[in-house]
Amino acid sequence: MPKLLIADDEPHIRTLLMQTLESLEDDGVELLLEPDGAAALERIRRERPDVAFLDVMMPRMNGYDVCAAVRADPDLAHVQVVLLTAKGQEADRQRGADVGAHLYLTKPFDPDALFETAERLLGLG
Amino acid sequence: MSAAGNGSAGLRRLLPARAADELLAPFGRLLVGARVRLLRVDGALHAEVVGASWRGPGEPRTWPLKVEADEVGRLAVDPPPEAALELAAVDALLGALGRTLAAAHGQRTIAGETLERYREIHLLYRVGDALAGTLDPAAVPRRVLAEARGVIEGDGGGVWLADEEEDAAFAGVGEPEGGPADGGEAAARRRARLTDPELPAIVAAGPGAPEHLLWAPMMARETCLGGVWLTRSGDDAVFTAGDLKLLTALATQAAAFLDNARLHQRALAQERLEQELRLAYAVQARLLPRETPAAANWSVAGFWRPAREVSGDFYDLLPVGDALGVVVADVADKGMPAALFMAVTRSLLRAAAAGGRSPAQTVADANRLAALDAADGMFVTLWYGVLRPDGRVDYVNAGHNPPIVVRADGRVERLPRTGILVGWDAGAPFEEAGVALAPDDLLVAFTDGVTEARDPGGREFGEGRLLEVVSANRDADAQTVLDAVRAALDAFVADAPAHDDCTLVVARFGTPPGVG
What are the counts of helices (DSSP H) followed by strands (DSSP E) for chain B? Predict the structure, then answer.
């Protein structure tokens, strides 16, 4: 069963992401929600999701560090990381690429593009 | 406690499994002899709690779980409660479920609205990005329709564009082709004014019309440039206010791009036109005399200035035996039509004058041919004189303002009309008149653009000022007199806009001053 993790410290953003992606559950995708970076990394290590959408600015551990930790772990090589942030500058995007993120999406996100990205990374649709 | 698999989205989305388990748990302790279940609308199990002394499946009693009148699932308790305490517990559970589901529904509604705004922002960004480099108005409708259909579900749709000339609707693009809302032949048949408030109904009219239609006008600078519509069929396919807002935002943005693209095209067309006019001016200027043919005992100078790029005025100098033919003419119009008629008239006069024919014969022949070619209201006034070596001038004045002869002693004579204007009546007669100039007499022929030139205050230059300048310079050669008139005219008009073309020819009989 494919799994997709969503990590964001802002509850309303989690709600928006969840509501955008919830119809993936109809395709048998399990959606996992976490409120901060450290919890997200722990859940990724435990559940080994196929895709992780990580907010960049999170307490305890930011999205860049979570992504770097995932990339440093050979057991998690299959996890595709999408960084999601309000930071839109090229330097931030470059930093995302440097830590091994597959994609870097900015907020406010395009719901349709986000859904299509998730489908594509999960190999659906 | 467990969560069920797939089924209706209602309960699952409003009350996720973990939250459902947490909500039910205390009621397992209150209803120890019962099994309490949450069922989805399709009957599938969503969550349950089993009391410690439940004795196995029985006939349950169920209560609907509703959100805004829609049933999203059911509460099932088995065995049904009988004791007052158990009924009170079920009531409490229904209350808690109602509040939780209502809160979740509210939160989802707000989230849905927010996501719509997110979609709107990205739609506008995407459309803006796609159309930013579009300077082709024809590319706008298809792009707009594609984006509209990408974000708002529908069976079909189309874009109508206003006909710029007729303020009427005409076919833009429509999907599906041939469908009721197709912008093809159906739209062309039902030409309607875009400002017509009934337009959406007109679009939707006809056999097989869609049940639901969403219409947004494309407004730019308070003008309706067209509109976008989407269609749906089916009872539950009603468009929402959010759909309308989104389509309106898209249509408004598209209108701005369309308006911009059209302005760009108009600017290009204007630039082409100006380029053509510059070329036309160059061609026309080459039709004017570049040098004065030798004429015994005469010095002649001429000047020509169009009010616009091209002119209906012209002058011509042509050898006629040992004499010099002088034409000053004014086509009764300005701009390109006048310029074309000027070129025709010039050629006709040149051809008619060949072989040393008299001014009357020349003008009569040219008139006959010009009248055949002249468009409605296209005619020309002209003065044609032949300057002979002995000082005699034989002329025809075809409806032209009278040229002036300024004698060496200062007396002034005018050379009156001897016929009507050229191009009006193919059979019109033209009489010939003559005047004899003595040495140092001046002949000044001009178009009314000279005497009717206006200063910034709107006053006319007038024949009086012309005579003053000519008289003050009557001892000078023809070119000097001409230059003086031109300078006085320029000073008078200053920066006022030119109203008419200006043409002036000065001829002086006799030995030029300072010679011999």
Answer: 12, 18
* Annotated domain spans of chain A: 3-122
pLDDT tens per residue, range A50-89: 999 999 989 889 999 999 999 999 999 999 999 998 876 7
Structural domain of B222: 133-265
d(C-alpha B400, C-alpha B29), whole Å = 117
Domain annotation covers residue B166: yes
pLDDT digits (tens, 9 = 90+) for B147-160: 888 778 887 787 87
Which ranges of B328-461 does DSSP label H, i.e. alpha helix?
335-353, 359-373, 448-451
Q: What is the CATH number of the domain that holds B179?
A: 3.30.450.40
- B439 inside 8 A of chain A by CB: no
Domain tally, chain B = 3
To the nearest whole Å, the CA of A120 is away from the closest chain B CA by 18
- Answer yes or no: do B456 and B308 share one domain: yes
- For B41, the token pair is 């609308």
In whole angstroms, give the CA distance from residue B107 to residue B14.
9
pLDDT at residue B92 in the model: 92
Same domain, residue pair B231 and B312: no
Q: Is B53 in the same domain as B197?
A: no
- The CATH architecture to which A3-122 belongs is 3-Layer(aba) Sandwich (3.40)
Chain A residues lying within 8 Å of B107, measured CB to CB: 15
| Interacting residues of A114 by C-beta distance below 8 A, sequence separation 6+ | A17, A20, A21, A105
Of the listed ranges A58-72, B27-41, B140-154, B401-415, the least confidently predicted one is: B140-154
| Most A-contacting residue of B42, B116, B118 (CB-CB within 10 A), to test interface | B118
Establish if B403 belongs to a structural domain.
Answer: yes
Q: What is the pTM of this model?
A: 0.57
Average pLDDT, chain B: 83
All residues of chain A having their beta carbon less than 8 Å from the beta carbon of residue B117 are 108
Whether residue B122 lies within 8 A of chain A, CB to CB, comes out as yes
For A16, which of B9, B114, B151 is closest by C-beta distance? B114
- Same domain for B348 and B483, yes or no, is yes
Q: What percent of chain A has pLDDT over 90?
A: 70
Mean pLDDT over the full length of chain A:
91
pLDDT, average across residues A87-114: 85
Residues B334 and B454 in one domain: yes
Which of B81, B111, B141 is a domain's end point? B111
Write the residue in A19, A22, A110 that is nearest to B122 by C-beta. Answer: A110
CA-wise closest residue to B374 among B428, B313, B425, B316:
B425
Are B233 and B153 within one domain? yes
Highest mean pLDDT, choosing among B86-95, B134-143, B385-394, B420-429:
B385-394
CB B464 within 8 A of CB B281: no
Is the CB of A111 less than 8 angstroms away from the CB of B151? Answer: no
Residues of A in contact with B9 (CB under 8 A): 22, 26
Distance, CA of B83 to CA of A101 (rounded, Å): 60
Amino acid letter, A38: A
Low-confidence winner among B87-96, B231-240, B268-277, B323-332 (lowest mean pLDDT): B231-240
Q: B106 vs B68, B109, B111, B283, B417, CA distance in Å?
A: 10, 5, 9, 77, 93
Quick one: average pLDDT of B180-209? 49
Q: What is the ipTM of this complex?
A: 0.89
Mean pLDDT of the B475-486 span: 94
Is the domain of B188 the same as that of B232? Answer: yes
Q: Do B76 and B138 fall into the same domain?
A: no
Residue B174 has pLDDT above 70, yes or no: no
Q: Measured in whole angstroms, how far is the alpha carbon of residue B438 from the centre of its chain?
A: 61
